[in-house]
Structures are given as C-alpha cells and as structure tokens.
Specification:
single chain; 5-stranded parallel beta sheet; 37% helix; Rossmann fold
Length: 249
C-alpha cells in the first residue's frame, strides 16, 4: 500500500499488525456484512497513522474488496492517510493524536448507561502518550469504572522525532497507569498466545478499565526497518519492498 503511493507509515503498521490480527480474527464480536451492528465490539485506532495495518485487516475480514487497498492515500479513496468514517469498519476519525481514548471513554460510558455488553478497544502509540488529553481520559475512565474499556499501548519506543525516552520519557509506564486506577497487563506484542490471553484476562476484569502494554518492535519482520526510525512515515522503494516481502514470507 505505502510503496504503491510513495507515502505512509508501514513501520508503525508492522508493530501493530499482530495485535490487530488477534482482535479481528480471534476476539472481537463484529460483522463485516453489518458494520453498524448495534451490539458489535468497538475498535478505535488512536495512532491513526498506523492505518495500513487496520486497512489490511478490514479488507481481509471482508469489510470492503481487497482491490481498494491499491487506492490507499489517493484522492477520493475510501482509504485515507488516517482513518475516516467513510471507510467501512472505522468507528471514529483519528490521526490527530491524543483523542482516540477520549472517544473510547464516551462510547464505553454510553454502553454502560444503556446496559449494553459490547466492549471497546483503543490502540494508542507510546509517543501519543505525550498528549495531556490521553491522561484526562485515563483519569475519567477509572472514575466511571469503565470495565468494558481496554486501552492497548503499542510500546515500540519510537515517535516521529526519535526514541520516546529521549523526546519525553514515559517510564515507569505500568506504574503510572496503576496510579490512575487501571488494571495493567504487560505482554510481548508479537506473541499471539500472550496477546489472546491478555484480551481474555481483560474481559474478566470488573470495576476498572484495563490497559495492555504491548512491547513491540517498530518495523517488525523487516530486518533493515526494525527499530530504524528513519523509516517513520517513509515508504519503502520497490527494491526495498521486494526484500521486505521475501523476509516476511
């Protein structure tokens, strides 16, 4: 997708793809034939720049034809550079970082008030945690005991300007979420068994929201992209793509 149009965030998508695969093919209650089904679980990709991963999963699940993936980031396409509700399966527009968890809180609170049993999952980037709005949402979710809400932090330790701990240190991250009243689970974000088990554990939590801190590798699966922040927002050349696909296969 990103190579065909010459722009996009492939490395940020690769750190998240295992988690999205677990959600859409093993855990979420959803129906690609009826994206607005009232009792569906909700997923919000707050780190909207990682949308190539979401689009690939939605297409594979049947929300829209896979041929649409070739139109990613093209004018008039249903697959914009950040998620938009014109895309079947996208709950809320994201990309302006820091807002996805607040939207998730609102949706979870609405479900609680209406006695709905759907669950709400929000994936955040670790660089996104620099945004103050995130921590307002963290505090609000704990206050309202939104136990249907699960935040997933894609902890790949990089943001656009460099390593997170050099730009704005966020460790000790688990302790911070606990201090705000959240149930905290830490996992290897590329280990499918750990991902699935953490989602099941989150389902059983009552009285408080859950955060899954998923330790990941930016650019996972492509040796020359892994942990290389020079590829943030940079599409691979056709030659690089050929090498990357060989490694991923």
């Amino acid at each position: 997708m990103t190579t065909s149009v010459g722009s996009g965030h492939a490395s940020s998508a690769l750190s998240a793809i295992d988690i999205l695969t677990a959600l859409y093919f093993h855990h979420l209650r959803h129906n690609p034939k009826d994206p607005s089904w009232d009792d569906r679980d909700r997923f919000i990709l707050s780190k909207g720049h990682g949308c190539p991963a979401l689009y690939a999963v939605l297409a594979d699940a049947g929300y829209f034809p896979k041929e649409e993936l070739a139109n990613h980031r093209r004018l008039g396409s249903i697959l914009q550079g950040h998620p938009d509700t014109k895309t079947p399966g996208v709950e809320v527009p994201t990309g302006s970082l820091g807002q996805g968890l607040s939207a998730g809180c609102g949706i979870a609170l609405a479900g609680k008030l209406e006695n709905k049993d759907y669950r709400v999952y929000v994936m955040l980037g670790d660089g996104e945690l620099d945004e103050g709005n995130v921590w307002e949402a963290v505090m609000s979710a704990a206050h309202y005991e939104l136990d249907s809400l699960v935040a997933i932090v894609d902890r790949n330790r990089f943001q656009v300007d460099g390593p997170t701990e050099e730009i704005m240190a966020i460790d000790p991250l688990p302790e911070k979420w606990r201090a705000f009243g959240w149930n905290v689970i830490e996992i290897d974000g590329h280990n499918m068994n750990e991902i699935l088990e953490s989602l099941k554990r989150a389902d059983k939590m009552r009285g408080k929201p859950t955060v899954i801190i998923a330790y990941t590798i930016k650019g996972k699966g492509v040796s020359f992209v892994e942990g290389n922040n020079e590829y943030h927002g940079k599409a691979l050349s056709k030659e690089e793509l050929s090498l990357a696909l060989q490694e991923l296969e």
